[in-house]
Design brief:
Elements lengths: L6 H15 L13 E11 L12 E9 L5 E5 L8 H6 L5 H18 L4
Antiparallel strand pairs: 1-2, 2-3
The structure holds zinc ion.
C-alpha cells in the first residue's frame, strides 16, 4: 500500500509551493499553469555497489505534475519541511531505518556526487 501524505502534510506542501513558486508559476516546458500535486510519497534511490548502504541513499519526494504536458517537478519532503524523517518512518512500519537514513546521510551523499550542479 503506498504511503500518502497526511492532510496536514499536504497543506504544508501546498504552502511550501506557494511560498517558493509564488501564485503564478507556469510550466517551464509548455507555459501552461495547470499543476497537480500527488499526495503519494515517492523515493529516489541511488544506485550503489554496497548493498548495506542502498537504503541509506534515498530521497523522499512528492511530485508536482503539469496537467498539460506531464512535466514533473520533484519536491524533497524533509528538506522542504513538509514531513520529518520520523513522520515518514511512522508511516512505513517495517522500514524505519531505511526511511530515517534517507534524510541524513542520503542527501549529502547524492549532492556531493552530483556533477550536474
Ligand atoms: Zn507543461
Amino acid at each position: 500500500m503506498p504511503i500518502r501524505l497526511t492532510e496536514d502534510q499536504q497543506h504544508k506542501l501546498f504552502q511550501h509551493i506557494r511560498e517558493k513558486w509564488g501564485q503564478n508559476r507556469p510550466c517551464p516546458m509548455c507555459g501552461h499553469n495547470k499543476w497537480t500535486v500527488d499526495a503519494t510519497v515517492y523515493r529516489l534511490a541511488a544506485m550503489t555497489t554496497e548493498t548495506a548502504a542502498a537504503n541509506h541513499i534515498v530521497q523522499p519526494l512528492a511530485t508536482v505534475r503539469c496537467r498539460h504536458c506531464s512535466n514533473m517537478v520533484l519536491i524533497h519532503l524533509t528538506q522542504s519541511g513538509v514531513a520529518t524523517p520520523t513522520e515518514l518512518s511512522l508511516a512505513a512500519p517495517g522500514q524505519p531505518e531505511s526511511i530515517v537514513g534517507m534524510a541524513t546521510s542520503g542527501s549529502v551523499n547524492i549532492d556531493s556526487k552530483d556533477e550536474t550542479h
